[in-house]
TrEMBL record, chain A:
<dbReference type="GO" id="GO:0000155">
    <property type="term" value="F:phosphorelay sensor kinase activity"/>
</dbReference>
<keyword id="KW-0418">Kinase</keyword>
<dbReference type="InterPro" id="IPR005467">
    <property type="entry name" value="His_kinase_dom"/>
</dbReference>
<keyword id="KW-0812">Transmembrane</keyword>
<keyword id="KW-0472">Membrane</keyword>
<feature type="transmembrane region" description="Helical">
    <location>
        <begin position="12"/>
        <end position="34"/>
    </location>
</feature>
<keyword id="KW-0902">Two-component regulatory system</keyword>
<dbReference type="InterPro" id="IPR050736">
    <property type="entry name" value="Sensor_HK_Regulatory"/>
</dbReference>
<dbReference type="InterPro" id="IPR000700">
    <property type="entry name" value="PAS-assoc_C"/>
</dbReference>
TrEMBL record, chain B:
<feature type="domain" description="Response regulatory">
    <location>
        <begin position="2"/>
        <end position="125"/>
    </location>
</feature>
<protein>
    <recommendedName>
        <fullName>Response regulatory domain-containing protein</fullName>
    </recommendedName>
</protein>
<dbReference type="InterPro" id="IPR011006">
    <property type="entry name" value="CheY-like_superfamily"/>
</dbReference>
<dbReference type="Pfam" id="PF00072">
    <property type="entry name" value="Response_reg"/>
</dbReference>
<dbReference type="InterPro" id="IPR001789">
    <property type="entry name" value="Sig_transdc_resp-reg_receiver"/>
</dbReference>
<feature type="modified residue" description="4-aspartylphosphate">
    <location>
        <position position="52"/>
    </location>
</feature>
<dbReference type="InterPro" id="IPR050595">
    <property type="entry name" value="Bact_response_regulator"/>
</dbReference>
<keyword id="KW-0597">Phosphoprotein</keyword>
<dbReference type="GO" id="GO:0000160">
    <property type="term" value="P:phosphorelay signal transduction system"/>
</dbReference>
Length: 446, 129
C-alpha cells in the first residue's frame, strides 16, 4: 500500500487522513451539540463525547493499542526478517556476483553480495558502493554497455551480455551479465538487478577442450596419413614376397621357403593393422558408405559354421552352436561387416581362452532384437578393465603387460560397425571363469 | 599383350612388372610419370594401362581425361591404382566421379595380392577384347 496519496496537486501522507476524518467527526458533533444545547450542559456533553471516543480514535489512528493486531504485526515483521536473512545469506553464499544499481546517469551501485565484493577485489560493501555501474567494466566497452542498458530499461526485459569486467586493481576478466530491470509501484524502472558470472575459468576450460580436440584430430589425421603411406611399400613387400614364395617352391629350397613364409606372414600382419586403423578412421568419419542389406542373421551364421570352426582349430578349441531353430531374424546391415564382428569375437575367444576349451555361440531372439553371444572358458576380464574393452586402443593401456598381438582396435571397430546399424555391443565376464561377448541388432521386416 | 605401368613410385613399377611377369604372355613397360607415359602410349600400341591415381604434376585422373578425348588412345582400357579408398562411392563422388571416365575400366586398392592384380588385369583384358 502506498503511503502517499495524491489529492489534486497535494501529496498527503496516508496517516493524516484518519486524523483529519476524526477531527472532522469531532467538529461536526461539537458543532451539533453547541447548536442544539446550551452551556454548561453542552460543555459537559462535549467532554463526555470526547473522552468516550478517544480510545477508538487512538486505535483507529495508530492501531497500536490493539494487542491482537500488534502481535500479528510483530509476527509478520519477524517472518519478513527471517525471510530477508534467509535470502541475504543465500545471496552471500551464491558463487556468483549479484548486485543492483540505480537507474541514473552514474548507475550507483545499491547492493552487492559478498561474492561480488570479493570478485571485483573491493574491501567491503561500502567500498564497492562508491562505484557506479560503468566503473566495474572495461572503459573500451562504455558505449556498448550504455546503449544496451538503455535498451534494457526501455524494453523492461531480461538480457544477457558478455563484457570485460574491471577489478579494483585494474585486472580485466571476461564476464557474462544477466540483468533484469527493477520495476517500482509506478511501473517505472528504479534500478537494475544483475547477476554476473566470471567466465575466465570457463574460457580456460574451453581452450583446453579445444586444444584436446585438435590434438585428437591431429592424431587421427596422422594415423590416416601414416596408414596410407604405409600401404605403398607394403604392397611391394607383399607382392614380391608372394612371387618369391612361388619361385622358392619351383627351386625346391625349403630353407628359403620357410624364411619367405615368415616374411609374407609378417607383411600380412602389418597389412591387417593398417587395415584396422583405416577402417576405424573411416567408420568414425562416416567416410564409408554404409551398406544396408536385409538378411536373415540366423541363416548367415549357419552358413558360416564351418569357417567359424576353422578359426578355433589352431588352438584346438571346440565351438558349440546354439542357434535358434526354425526361426528367422531379419536385420538390416552389411552381412560382411557383421561376420567381421562375429569373427573378431570368436578370434578373441580362441586367443584369450584356454586351449582345448569349448566356445559357445548362442543366439537369443526377442520381439525387437536378435542377440548373438560368444562365450569362452578363458581367463576372464578384471572388472576395472571391462569398461574400456570396446574403446579405441584398449590394448595400449598397459602395453608392457600385453599378452596378445594387436593394437587393440578390433573390438573398437566391432562397436563402430554394430552401432552404425543401431545395434549394441557388450561383455559380461568373471575373472577365471571366462567372458561372454555379445552384439545385438534390431529386427526389421523381411 | 602389351601392358604399360605408369607410377611415380619406382618400387611399385618394379613390383607390378615382376608380378605380371609370372604370366608369360604379358609384356610390361614401366613409365615414371604421366608425360612419359603419354608419349610412350603414342609411340607404341598398348592393350592395357595400369595407372597411379595420384602423381605429382599430371595426375592419373588428368591423364585418363586426356586419353578419353584422344581418338587414338580412347580405346585403351585403364586400371587405376591407389592407396586411397578409390572403390568407395563416397570417395568417387567427392573426386568428380573419376570412375565414370570412359577409359577407366578397373580400380585396384593398395595393398593388393598377386592374385588380385592378375585377376583384375585378366578380367579387364577379357571384357575389352
Amino acid at each position: 500500500m502506498r503511503n502517499i496519496i495524491h489529492f489534486f496537486s497535494l501529496k498527503i501522507p496516508r496517516k493524516i487522513i484518519s486524523v483529519l476524518l476524526f477531527l472532522l467527526y469531532f467538529a461536526v458533533v461539537i458543532r451539533f451539540v453547541l447548536e442544539y444545547s446550551y452551556p454548561p450542559q453542552s460543555y459537559f456533553l462535549i467532554v463526555l463525547f470526547s473522552f468516550s471516543n478517544l480510545p477508538s480514535a487512538l486505535i483507529f489512528i495508530s492501531k497500536k493499542s490493539n494487542p491482537y493486531l500488534l502481535s500479528e504485526l510483530r509476527a509478520t515483521e519477524k517472518a519478513l526478517q527471517a525471510t530477508y536473512r534467509h535470502w541475504d545469506s543465500l545471496l552471500s553464499l551464491l558463487p556468483q556476483a549479484v548486485f543492483s544499481y540505480a537507474n541514473n546517469a552514474t548507475g550507483n551501485i545499491l547492493f552487492v553480495n559478498d561474492f561480488g565484493v570479493k570478485l571485483f577485489g573491493y574491501r567491503d560493501l561500502d567500498d564497492f558502493k562508491k562505484m557506479g555501474y560503468l566503473d566495474i567494466f572495461d572503459k573500451s566497452q562504455k558505449a556498448r554497455i550504455m546503449s544496451e542498458r538503455a535498451n534494457l530499461i526501455e524494453k523492461k526485459n531480461t538480457m544477457i551480455s558478455e563484457y570485460v569486467g574491471l577489478k579494483k586493481d585494474g585486472t580485466k576478466f571476461p564476464v557474462a551479465l544477466y540483468s533484469t530491470p527493477i520495476i517500482d509501484d509506478d511501473h517505472k524502472v528504479s534500478g537494475v538487478l544483475g547477476i554476473l558470472i566470471d567466465l575466465s575459468e570457463i574460457k580456460r576450460f574451453k581452450e583446453t577442450i579445444d586444444q584436446l580436440h585438435s590434438l585428437d584430430q591431429a592424431k587421427d589425421d596422422f594415423l590416416n596419413i601414416a596408414a596410407h603411406e604405409l600401404k605403398t611399400p607394403l604392397t611391394s613387400i607383399l607382392v614380391v614376397s608372394e612371387i618369391l614364395k612361388t619361385k622358392s617352391k619351383t627351386l625346391g629350397d625349403q630353407e628359403i621357403g620357410k624364411e619367405i613364409d615368415l616374411l609374407f606372414g609378417e607383411a600380412e600382419r602389418l597389412k591387417k593393422i593398417v587395415d584396422q586403423i583405416l577402417t576405424a578412421t573411416r567408420f568414425e568419419n562416416k567416410h564409408n558408405v554404409i551398406k544396408n542389406e536385409t538378411f536373415d542373421l540366423l541363416a548367415l551364421i549357419k552358413d558360416h559354421i564351418s569357417s567359424l570352426k576353422s578359426l578355433a582349430e589352431p588352438r584346438k578349441s571346440q565351438i558349440n552352436f546354439a542357434i535358434t531353430e526354425r526361426k528367422e531374424a531379419w536385420v538390416s546391415a552389411d552381412p560382411d561387416k557383421i561376420l567381421e564382428v562375429l569373427n573378431n569375437f570368436v578370434d578373441n575367444a580362441v586367443k584369450y581362452g584356454t586351449p582345448d576349451q569349448t566356445i559357445i555361440i548362442k543366439t537369443i531372439l526377442s520381439a525387437t532384437e536378435v542377440k548373438v553371444e560368444v562365450t569362452d572358458q578363458g581367463i576372464g576380464i578384471a572388472p576395472d578393465k571391462i569398461g574400456r574393452m570396446f574403446s579405441k586402443f584398449s590394448q595400449l593401456e598397459n602395453s608392457l603387460a600385453r599378452t596378445q598381438e594387436g593394437i587393440g582396435l578390433g573390438l573398437y571397430i566391432c562397436r563402430l560397425i554394430v552401432e552404425s546399424y543401431k545395434g549394441r555391443v557388450g561383455v559380461n565376464s568373471a575373472v577365471g571363469k571366462g567372458s561372454t561377448f555379445y552384439f545385438s541388432l534390431p529386427l526389421v521386416k523381411k | 599383350m602389351k601392358i604399360l605401368v605408369i607410377d611415380n613410385d619406382t618400387s611399385i613399377g618394379i613390383t607390378i612388372k615382376a608380378a605380371l611377369g609370372l604370366n608369360a604372355s604379358y609384356e610390361v613397360m614401366v613409365c615414371l610419370g604421366a608425360k612419359e607415359g603419354l608419349e610412350e602410349m603414342k609411340k607404341n600400341k598398348y592393350n592395357l594401362v595400369l595407372l597411379d591415381f595420384m602423381m605429382p604434376g599430371i595426375s592419373g585422373v588428368d591423364l585418363c581425361k586426356t586419353m578419353a578425348s584422344d581418338e587414338k588412345l580412347k580405346y585403351i582400357p585403364v586400371i587405376l591404382i591407389s592407396a586411397l579408398p578409390i572403390s568407395s562411392e563416397v570417395f568417387q563422388q567427392s573426386n568428380d566421379n573419376f570412375n565414370r571416365i570412359s577409359v577407366v575400366k578397373g580400380l585396384l586398392e593398395k595393398p593388393f595380392s598377386v592374385a588380385e592384380l592378375l585377376g583384375k588385369v585378366e578380367s579387364v583384358l577379357n571384357t575389352t577384347k
